[in-house]
Amino acid sequence: MSVSSAIPPVTTTQSTTTTRTTPSPTKTAAPTNTTTSSSGTRGAEATRTSTAPAFTKESTSVEGLSAAQAVVKSHGFTAGETSDYRPEQTLRVLVGTRTGSSDGYGQQAFFFVDGRYIGTDASEPSASVKVVGQSDTEVTLAYPLYKPGDPLSHPSGGERTVHFQLNNGHLVALNPIPPTASRTGS
Q1: How far, CA to CA in Å, does 42 sit from each of 9, 10, 45, 53?
Q2: pLDDT by residue (tens digit) across 133-144?
Q3: Where do the H-state alpha helices sit in 40-161?
Q4: pTM exceeds cut of 0.70
C-alpha cells in the first residue's frame, strides 16, 4: 500500500481488568490501535504517541541509509551529513551536494517516507541548504540568502527557514521556499 492510499479503518478499544489479591485500585489497560489488514485479520499495533496520522507508519518496507544514499547518487548528488537521515522517523531527509562540485555548492534536500524517495525540496539546487530541525513528520531547512553580486561564500541576505511537513502522504512546504536567485546568488 502506498502512503497516499486510502486510510484503513482504525478502531480504538479500551479494556478494564480488575485483579484483587489484596485491596488495590482498578487497573486500566492503555488504548490500543487495531487495523484490519488486506487479509481481513485483525492485529494490535503499538500505540503512537505522535500526532501524525496512523497510516504514515503502515509501511514495513524500510530502506537503510545506504539505499537512500544510492537514490541521492542516482540523481547526480553525493550525500553529505548522513546523521540527518533518521531511520526511526517517518519523514527522513538527506542533503546532497552536486557530484563533482569543487566548492561544495549546489545542494538539494532529498526526502523519504519510511525509506521510499518522494522528492526534493525545490526543483533547482540551492547554493547551500542545511537541516536545522526534525520530528517524525516534519523537517526544517535553512537557506542562506544572497543578494545580487554576493559571493557564494558570503551571503548578505540573511537566512530563511522553511518547514516541510508530511500531510496525507504528500510533502508540503509550510513556508514559501525562497526564489532560486535568492538561494543561488544568480
Answers
A1: 11, 10, 10, 19
A2: 999 999 999 999
A3: 65-74
A4: no
